[in-house]
Amino acid sequence: MDPSNLSSLPEESSEENQQQTKKDVSAFSSIPARPPTNKTSSQKCSPLDWSGYFDKEDDVCIPDSNDVFHVYMAGTQGPVIFCLHGGGYSGLSFALSASKIKEKMRVVAMDLRGHGKSTAENDLDLSIETLCGDVLAVLKTMYGDSPPAIVLVGHSMGGSVAIHVAAKKALPTLAGLVVVDVVEGTAMASLIHMQKILSNRIQNFSTIEKAIEWSIKSGSLRNTESARISIPSTLKYDDSKKCYIHRARLEETEQYWRGWYEGLSETFLSCSVPKLLLLAGTDRLDRTLTIGQMQGKFQMVVVRHTGHAIQEDVPDEFATLILNFVSRNRIGPHGVEIPGIRRPSQLQP
Question: Torsion over CA of 78, 84, 90 and 94, rounded to 10 degrees?
């Protein structure tokens, strides 16, 4: 959830709204006029199927519970890039990136509880403890006691979950941590505005195409192709209202928000695996991380010309950054290879 990307936009522009727009400075005023196209607005915003990007989907049933987590998978070899989406998004947020990353390694993108196609006994329990438990349970169910090398990748709220999972040291083959556009200082400062932001966004849509169009026009996503894949999975049809509404009921989970981000910078720095922080702007870096970055405790890349959802807005660049991170840190099928340090199997008896 990011204040700059959830601005309200009328579904239909009235004459009054159009007049007001002329008076205000528009964020889109500098964009040159595009040539006319034969496609209608509905065609340009029609949904795209996940199968063009991921190889398969599956439901992971957690033993001794009624929780079922939906995952999308791609690739057949190499370490597993395990992706955790932000609040209000879904695993399909990583679809375009996955289609590139899978050429070199495996990708698993999970729908967190209360999101996408996952179902849990309590969809509203988004406490950091519960979310971390869900991730560990999914990994345990999928891979048992012999998991492959795993790189946790988390965007926004999912970045917080990835950090806390890594800090627990409960994954013996955790080989890397990538956090996408979430910093404690900025996140904590924005929490006081979140209820207003959530309430001001459009709450229902007559069609999925309208929702996709809104996500682009409001600026929450900047890549139309990615929006056409990911946005449908963030909605559900309300029979009583005869319209589509947001799947995640984030406005009802306020009690957990501080827990996502409080102490996040120190926790991130405490994680012993190689770390990469991707930011959409340098203003998001707080004091603790600035000092840590100067001390070389993690790699940081500022990705230009993108919004909050870096993995959706510039998927090719995002995929390249992930692949380079894995290569640079020698993350292979069996874990992390550190130059100069021999593995136990290489030692003489």
Answer: -40
Q: 93-110 pLDDT, tens per residue?
A: 999 999 999 999 999 999
CB 274 within 8 A of CB 297: no
CA distance 263 to 139: 25
Domains and CATH numbers, the chain: 52-192+257-336 (3.40.50.1820)
The amino acid present at 113, given as its one-letter code, is R
298-307 pLDDT, tens digit per residue, is: 999 999 889 9
pLDDT digits (tens, 9 = 90+) for 272-306: 999 999 999 766 778 888 899 899 999 999 998 89
Residues tagged active-site: 156, 181, 308
Instruction: Determine the 3-state secondary structure of 82 from DSSP.
Output: strand
What residues have CB less than 8 Å from 264, skipping those under 6 apart? 160, 163, 182, 183, 184, 187
